[in-house]
Batch of 4 targets.
Target 1
Amino acid sequence: MCSIYFSRLIMDKSWMHKSRSTIEYKNGLNQFLDMAFSNVSLGGKIICPCKYCKNAKWVDRETTKEHLIVDGFMKGYTHWVIHGEDTSSSQTTFQNLDPINTLDDMDGLINDAFGVKDSDTSMDEEPNESAKKFYKLLDDAQQELYPGCKKFSKLAFIIRLFHLKCMGKWSNKTFTMLLELLKEAFPTMTESLPKSYYEVQKIIGALGLTSTKIDACPNDCILYWKEHEKSTSCHICNISRYKQGEINEVADDVSSVKHKKIPAKVLRYFPLKPRLQRIFMSSKTSTFMRWHKEEGTKDGSMRHPSDSPVWHSFDRQYREFAKDPRNVRLGLAADGFSPFRTLSVTHSTWPVIVTPYNIPPWMCMKEPFFFLTLLIPGPSPPGNNIDVYLQPLVEELKVLWEDGVETYDASSKQNFNMRVALLWTINDFPAYANLSGWSTKGELACPLCHKDTWSKYLYKSRKQCYMGHRRFLDDNHPYRKDANSFDGTEEYGQPPIPLTGDKILEDLGELNVKFGKKVSNNPALPYNWKKKSIFFELPYWKDITLRHNLDVMHIEKNVCDSVIGTLLNLEGKTKDHENSRLDLEDMGIRHALHPTILDSGRKYLPAACFSMSKKEKDIFFDILQNVKVPDGYASNISRCVQMKPQKLSGLKSHDNHILIQQLLPIGLRKVLPKHVRTHVINLCTFFRELCSKVLIPRDLVRLEEEISKTLCELEKIFPPSFFDVMIHLTIHLAYEARLGGPVQYRWMYPIER
């Protein structure tokens, strides 16, 4: 009898989600305690499952009851296996479920779309309109397709039918004709089905599977929205809004032929508000949106963006925003990719993705919390004109900052006004230029050194080099006056001070830059500026200390390629070649490496200290070919090693990550002179420490000092052509980590995956 009683108790746990002051909660708690203490051993104590004990402390019945009334159950503890619940009862529960739910998990689909669980339906306050739509759709998902149908629910059948339409590439008209045929052939069984594709689209739209289409100029000049919504041609380049039309309907005479207007270019915009609201509609995810304030570890180390000076500085400047921990901080990422499987087609489609940073580390930067907001069509990348396509998103971000949006918080059972702020952008170096407005090419390519970038054009190699790292050393460092070991000059400069938002606005002033591929009469801009970024329309953007992140992933990859290519003298990848030696000759430094003319008339390049001999290459390649790593740690790098001829090929970004941080220091232990391998290994160590999951501010200050010394040592070893902008950017990575926190939340790995 007792087992039957407790099996019923296990089936009904709705009291757990009620207020702890209600009679239902107290009665349910007493039943839970009866079960937990029914098989207790001597001592009369159980493990307390309250919010603070978390199944770690042994206490008596009265203390347990007090804890669970005052603090409540720990999060997620709904299956009481530690306190005597029989797991077999939950299995029988699933076996007795309605066949509809076993064949198609419509409740799960709706929960995923809205972020709500069935247990969230108990409310203390009337839900807002968005939450009401969820509960209405949940009821519809339980309807049978026709009376007595156990295989499909109404919603499941519609989604399966819509899936066939997408896979089979049916036209909208054909899909409507199929629905009409089904209703005509089976009138009593298909009475609940929608009549047309339009009605199906409204149902699918309630699941969040739709987007807003905005026509765009093919030359990226304007969007046809707001004041240009009804325009038929671009007022900047005068090109038509539409393609050559397709014949939609043919009449008896030629004059009455109708043409279907097809937009030449269409931007797809996925509104941000409903998806952020859905995070709060689940009591599970809504509590995690306060994690950064309520549960984050506060010990001075940085484990999460909420521990960073950027976050704290924003809180100090905007105290009203920071008062409510539910207000959302976002990161924005943009990059191009080819949607076609073949590489022979040149096409670049640009998705723009945002991700919230309120959530804990084990959820942050994970795929379920990546929200696609814009899909910018190809075939060519938007480049500097990306601001045209960002207008709808920036407009929505302004509204979410200034006015906010009413949101239902399932954890507190109340509505609140949710506000949103964009914290920074994440992008590779070319996209950095598109989003920030500072050109990342030419003599002022470094956006952090800006107008004070040290660069020199190498006439033989036909490229810019970026050295001048002695500026970052102490004022009294002996390397500052050592002209012979470096570029032939003494260094008295100071490290550049990064630009603030106010300084940028002061330099750019009131600009009127026109966008578009055919626009050529834009005003001249100072230094390397191409535009004033559209993000400065956000009222708070100028006050953020780290607006755009340097991508550690791509920088690490390029540095690894340059180092390995130069050390192994790989064809096409080495920075040491005849032209680089001629550059040394032009600069009048390192005379031992200058090309010499042999008696036969051929040029001879003396061996450099950083070039591996044949024997050293054999040792290095043998290590890489025989290395074994744990499953899932890295790809099989040995497959990228070719012994005859000796070369590395097919390395991915993560392969370079493992190579420079783990394998390269091992491979260099018995090769190259000590003064060369020591400084190359120091560079590898810098990246390994920089990518730590926990960053300590004083260690980052040390890393800033060490990387400046390491780059100066490398300037004494490698030719100037080695120092492209990617090598130079490493000097700023520790500084950005000191501002923004761990790099795992600010690099492109999760975005590109």
Note: Residues 1-11, 87-103, 115-123, 247-256 have pLDDT under 50 and may be disordered.
Target 2
Amino acid sequence: MPERIQDIADDAALSARSERATGTVVTHAPNTGKYAYRSKATVAFTVGGKQYINVVEGAGALPDRLPLGTAVDVLYLPNDPSVSRAATSDAETSRITAPELAGLWLLSVLLVLATFFVYRPRAVR
């Protein structure tokens, strides 16, 4: 399954049947750009004695807003804790970008139009 489609399926599964753990901010990726939405923080959490990580992005992931050692709630799938989402304010683990969403919308419109033109009623001669 393509990566983005899998990400959407994972997000839906997390919304439907996730469990909660407490994670801790362990690292910050250097933000080499001037935009806050590119900030990244890594949250580590433990389930069943095994450690997992979740990367949080956005303005809420800036070091002054989400300092190292901060406790963060993490939602995860009980059968696969590697599928997770950190619950933080002003930050997101959303995996689909606005241009990708616009592309999916455009593709949907084109498919509807193509279907209409292929199956449109034709005048009988």
Note: The two ends are 47 Å apart (CA to CA).
Target 3
Amino acid sequence: MKKIIKISRVLFLVSLVLVLGACGNEQSTQTNAGKAEALTEKAKNEENVKGIVKAIKQKDIRYKLFITYEGAIWAVGTTAARNGDYGFDQPHVATSTVAFAVQNKLNSEQETAIVELVIRGKDKEGNRVTEPQGDMAGDVRKYYPEAFNENGIPYYGADVDYATLSNVKVVNSEKKGYQKITADVTIHLHMTDGTVKTRTYPTSSIPESTNTAISNEDKQAALHAEFMNQPLPPDDGSVKK
């Protein structure tokens, strides 16, 4: 009788283990299925994001900056017009965003996103890399009154030089189905005495998902400017202090 009871207990325990194991396997299968589903769900702009991140994570890429006729700081796209067309295609010295995109086989949407990362920097206090039409309120130039006047025009010998990107990350964006690139953009300037200054801002961009080739006209302008890789002369509006 005792043997029968022991055998029954053993069979009960074995059955219990098998049932629990089956439940565990089912839960595991469901969990894994959920994970697989999450991993296979691609963002609409994932391919563009991957290409941008791979390109901008290269070390010491310098995106050439200039001051527009309207007084805003901008990234050189094809050429900077200042008594002639100045182009830049040396990534570790100075590069236009279009030249950089062409070198890295990026499309027009990816090039636009790089411009946004360079220009849209904004800190917690609302201070920006640049404001349109030389508005110095919140502009990086406001920190250097010895180099730029109240309208954002550089004093003779001073200027903005280039921007660098660091701390590049990919996160989910507020735009459903899209990824966002975040980074820190550092603006490099020089003062009237040649002293180099830098200021860093958080920045971000949500690249588009489309794939538009950079036009041949833009490629030509970016890579065959009248003056390639030459220092920009002082801005036409420069004034002596």
Note: The chain has five helices and ten strands.
Target 4
Amino acid sequence: MPRKMAGIFGASNIFWMVFAASQAFKIEIFPEDKIIAQIGDSVSLTCSTTGCESPSFSWRTQMDSPLNGKVKNEGTKSILTMDPVSFGNEHSYLCTATCESRKLEKEIQVEIYSFPKEPEISLSGPLEVGQPVTVTCSVADVYPFDRLEMTLLKGNQLMKNREFLEEMESKIVETKSLEVTFTPRKEDIGKNLVCHAKLHIDGIGTELRERETRKKLQLYASPKNTIRIVKPSGKLQEGDSVTMTCVSEHLPAPQIIWSKKLDNGDVQVLSANASLTLIAMRVEDSGTYICEGIDSHGKHREEVELIVQEKPFSVEISPGPQIAAQIGDSVTLTCESMGCVSPSFSWRTQMDSPLVGSVKSEKTKSTLTLNPVSFEHEHSYLCTVTCGRKKMEKGIQVNLYSFPRDPEIELNDPLVTGHPVTVSCKVQNVYPLDRLELQLLKGQRIMKNKNFLEDEDKKSLETQSLDMSFIPSIEDTGKILVCLAKLHIDEMEFEPKQRQSIKTLSVNVPPKEMTILVSPSSILEEGSSVNLTCSSDGFPAPKVLWSKQLNNGNLQPLSENTTVTLTSTRKEDSGIYVCEGFNPAGISRKEVELVVQVPPKDIQLTAFPSETVKEGDTVIISCTCENIPKTWIILKKKADTGDTVLKSTDGAYTIHKAQLRDAGVYECESKNEVGLQLRSLTLDVKGKGNKDYFSPELLVLYCASSLIIPAIGMIIYFARKANMKGSYSLVEAQKSKV
């Protein structure tokens, strides 16, 4: 290597050694700069170094206060753990790392707060319309309370707001409260009292610095003005039905108790509903019925007198006064007469709408079949039985619903960690839609719910869905998504009124951290073997595809195994090999270059015009070999006293005016990093007086003379032919055959 280049490389090495030394020892702390911790939680500070195998660490506070934590050193890391966090941890902490004679220091500020609970709403007494009451909103264990703001609302109306800006005398957690006195009105029914607390501390999430509690207003008023409604009337015939409804001006709605006076003076409780329906009345059902409205503040009662007259025959309708029928099913209503030998039957709807059903009467029974049940069948049906001059009528209410299948859970894309995905909870063919509630849960936690109350007047089968987006994480794998559909129709008897579907989450992780291992090396000798091994992290485990990059940039697939083995490699095996790892979450790629080195071969050493020349001639000695990169060609002349290296150009050496001393053995050496190959020839230089020498000039003259005579004959032939035609063309002339 020239002395100048050696100087440059030496200076460069010194520069990099100085640079590496200046960059070697570093210190980092995590989290960076500042951390805000809640009192009672556990917090860890991690101090780490690079560029030193065995550093030593020490921790201290800026004010040299006690650490109030435990220190654990692990190699190039030191961890300070404060568990639980208390007021004694609100400091600026310093981590000092020492490596031999070098010392580095890093600082982090620890601030604390306390805001562990939701606010609490309490009332000074029960909520009675027109009576003042004091509501108190309190939040416990707050620090620092001079950052606290509290707001009390009734519905959307602001009742009071306060910021606790008074100066803190000591570091303690305190309970702060907000009080408002107001007089409830009827308009307040259903409104919420809202207590909102906010701790104005930057650096913590909204869900940690804002808390809210709601309390629904439950108002009451003393019971009064109890009235009763009797339909059709208090005078009935045996087998008739009657509905008695009791209404009382109570707030909240009182408990309604229906009972009947017995002959012995006792009372028989019949129902705890506002309406009491008695069907197939008998004579002994006559009597006094009592409606009583009761709550914790009082009660009020009214009486109804029912008279049931005997009837010569009776009628029963089944399955009962009302039936819940699913749309699409088949329903049969049966009307049966007792006490009449040859009754006649007729069916109609309460509103005289078309019957739209199949009627079949036989002896004392008549059936009305609705198949399939549709919206036109949602009526109150009346069966009229005539026996001679007497007539009796029974009714049955057909209520419709549709809830035929479990909801479906759909994801718009595969679950990939960190990528937003939309989940849809869909339920099909529902009616009535205004009673539907959909919930989406992840595990036991409700993510979203929806009631479709706005669709109250829709009379059609509806398919509705509840959609929401979330960002899955790897911790979600194994959790379940639950799509829960509820049809809130308590007054109908059918099952199920609740359906659900479950989907277990499997979160995909795209391929990452791909590595390629080449054994033994990416630079090989021709004929040797090599293993290319590719690995990648991801979930599910990525599949591997090995390919070779062609000259046009396209990829030629090789194998789907993680390891590709090339045996007896050739020069053509050199090139770029690409490993692709892929799974449903994505694809990752890495490549490696393979170089197959080939030793020199097919070397050719020639002398032009010949290996035997005459003194004074020019001769070119040329050495060539197969076009292999990085091949060196050296021409030498062998001699007993030592070899002479010839100055050749592209493997060619020219001897001008050859002398007798130029005769001898010439050798060509072709070599590269893999091997070498030798070829030699002997150059014979003849003196000018040597008769045995057959010069090339004589050979040329001899060959030329052997061709002259035939050529002259051909020229004469073509000349004569041209004279006969009047012209001559070498192009049109017939080629001679030799």
Note: The longest helix spans residues 696-725.
